[in-house]
Write a structure and sequence with these properties.
The protein contains 2 helices and 2 strands, in the order H-E-E-H. The chain is α+β, with helices and mostly antiparallel strands. The protein has a two-stranded antiparallel sheet with strand order 1-2.
C-alpha cells in the first residue's frame, strides 16, 4: 500500500510539472484599470486555489446555516 501511495504521488507530481512546462505562454489578465501578466499554468493554479478557498468557505457557510435551521426554537 505504501508503494502505491508513493507511486501515485510521483505520478501526480510528474503530471503537474509536465503541465507547468507545456504552458509557459503568458497571458494578461485585466480587472478594471489593473492588469497583470502571468504564465498560463500559474493562472490556472491560482484559479484552482481560489476555487478551493471559496468552495471551502461556501461549504462551511452552508453547514452553519443548516445547523442553525435544525436548532430547536425556544
Amino acid at each position: 500500500m505504501r508503494y502505491l501511495s508513493i507511486g501515485l504521488i510521483v505520478a501526480f507530481t510528474a503530471l503537474v510539472l509536465l503541465f507547468k512546462i507545456q504552458n509557459l505562454e503568458t497571458v494578461t489578465v485585466s480587472l478594471f484599470s489593473a492588469s497583470m501578466t502571468l504564465s498560463v499554468s500559474t493562472l490556472v493554479m491560482l484559479i484552482y486555489v481560489l476555487g478551493m478557498l471559496t468552495g471551502g468557505f461556501l461549504w462551511a457557510l452552508l453547514r452553519s446555516l443548516i445547523r442553525r435551521a435544525r436548532r430547536p426554537v425556544a
